[in-house]
Amino acid sequence: MRKVVSFILSVCLVFGCLAMLSGCGSNEEKITLYVYNWGQYISEGDEDSLDVIAAFEEKYPNIHVQYSTYDSNEIMYSKLAAGGITVDLIIPSDYMIGRMAQEGMLKELNFDNIPNYKYVDEAFKNTSYDPDNKYSVPYTWGTVGIIYNTKYVDEADVTGWELLWNEKYAGKILMFDNSRDAFGIAQYLLGYDVNTTDEDALKACTEKLKEQKPVVQQYVMDQIFSVMENEEAWIAPYYAGDYLTMAEENPDLAFYFPQEQGFNIFIDAMCIPTCCQQQEAAELFINFLCDPEVSGSNMDYLGYSTPISAAKEYMDPEVASSPIAYPDDNTLRNATSFSFLPGDTSRLMENLFMEMRNS
Description:
alpha/beta, 12 helices
């Protein structure tokens, strides 16, 4: 992973050899495109990887990308719902896309500006959260499992989500700092549907998370990288793509799919919020990210799974065939996706999570 970008690709991107769309030529007034994405979620040129934003700006010299990050879907949603910020492109997860579409927070896409959408695999189209392909273009997909340090964690203890409650490792366990992922783990552990709207089930999950709290070192999102790599913590639930990045820094880390209990499989997709001021530029950026060469280089660095099979041609073969990034059907047999929940249920889950965190 994180291979040096090929000379040919670098030259092509710098000099704009990829097909350019009209309407964003270098003679036009420079505009700013505000991109709001997860942290650690785009290749930025580290370790000789492709700098995606710089390459895009080289291709479209009249567009400047102003890039900022968020830690969770819920943080991104709350900031956009509150208003008062400028955002042209976001990359939410499946269930959040469904919520935002239903609440009128997303613009319909003009696919005339996204011809590279043809490269997106059919399996990632007509999804439950966007059945008519109006609002989103897949960026990555992935899974959630358990990351643990083989130097300190007994393999006999790695049997399922209950590892995150094991008092033997108190003070060395991390936990998600967002309600949907945290409740999902409790739901898998207790045998509830991860898309339940039952209030009693959610309260039971809250109690289970309260039981865990004494053994949790801290609740994290992007902070997990340094904490796990530096062995300040030994166990954490997190995304498989990020595990592959962390394992490069610390080869003692391992990844476990709780196959019998179930685990989350997700799609993160590119969307344009209604507050967008530069829709055509946002669609050009989406189209750029869907180019197989760009997607391949980007995912090769990130470790996340590409929804564009043609991109694998441009990836390190070891990454493209990784059983962590691309698990087989047997591994995925009990994987489930988060669905959009009614507003009342989402708010209840968020409130219960915050009450648990603050108790």
